[in-house]
Design brief:
Helix content is 66%, strand content 0%. The protein is an all-alpha fold.
Length: 191
C-alpha cells in the first residue's frame, strides 16, 4: 500500500506529541514518526533537519497555544472559580510540560541564550508565569489566599504541580481534581 504524501502541521504535532509520550526523547526518531503518520522519512526531512528542530517548533507552538488560551479565556469573576480555571489550564498542558522536560536542548543555557526560538519560548513562559503571579497576588490581596505563604512558593507549587508522578494511575481529570482539592483545602481533615 502506498504511503500518504501529505500531512498537516497539526497532524505532525499531534503525532510528535503522542510518540514522545510513548517512547521518550532518546528513542523518538523520524523513522518512528514517519511510520506513525504513514509517510516517508523524506517527507519529514523536507521540513526539519533533525528531531530537535521539530521538537523545538512543537514546544513553541504549544506554548503559544497556552498563551492564546490565557488571553481568550473568559475568566470567572469569583476568585475561587478563577483559580480553579487556571489550574485546569495548567493541567490541560501537563503532557506538553512533560515532553519539554525530556528534550535536553530545550533547557535554557548560556550557549543557546541568543537562539530566537529559545528567546520566544522564554517570553511565552514569562507571560504564563506572570499571569499566575498576578492571579496569586490578587488572591492574597483580596483575602482568598494565605498571605503568610510566600508568593513564589504558591506560584511554583501551582506551576509545577503537574510534575507530580501519577503513580495512582488516575485519569487526567481525577488527578487535577485531587491536586486542586489538596491545594485549595489542604490535606488535614476539616472538622
Amino acid at each position: 500500500m502506498a504511503r500518504k504524501k501529505t500531512f498537516t502541521q497539526e497532524e505532525l504535532y499531534q503525532a510528535t506529541h503522542d510518540l514522545m509520550l510513548e517512547v521518550g526523547y532518546d528513542i523518538f526518531s523520524f523513522q518512528l514518526l514517519a511510520n506513525k503518520l504513514d509517510i516517508s522519512r523524506t517527507a519529514l526531512y523536507k521540513y526539519y533537519t533533525n528531531k530537535y528542530d521539530l521538537l523545538q517548533d512543537y514546544l513553541k507552538h504549544q506554548l503559544e497555544k497556552v498563551v492564546e488560551r490565557l488571553d481568550a479565556t473568559e475568566w470567572p469573576s469569583e476568585y475561587p472559580e478563577k483559580l480553579s480555571a487556571l489550574m485546569d489550564l495548567v493541567f490541560d498542558y501537563a503532557d506538553t510540560h512533560a515532553i519539554s522536560a525530556m528534550v535536553p536542548a530545550q533547557q535554557w543555557t548560556k550557549e543557546n541564550a541568543n537562539d530566537p526560538d529559545i528567546q520566544r519560548s522564554k517570553e511565552l513562559h514569562a507571560r504564563f508565569f506572570g499571569f499566575i503571579q498576578v492571579m496569586i497576588e490578587e488572591g492574597q490581596r483580596d483575602g482568598f489566599l494565605n498571605q503568610e505563604i510566600p508568593l513564589m512558593v504558591m506560584i511554583e507549587t501551582i506551576f509545577h504541580s503537574i510534575n507530580l508522578p501519577n503513580r495512582a494511575g488516575l485519569s487526567a481529570e481525577q488527578r487535577a481534581y485531587f491536586v486542586k482539592k489538596m491545594l485549595f483545602e489542604g490535606i488535614l481533615k476539616q472538622k
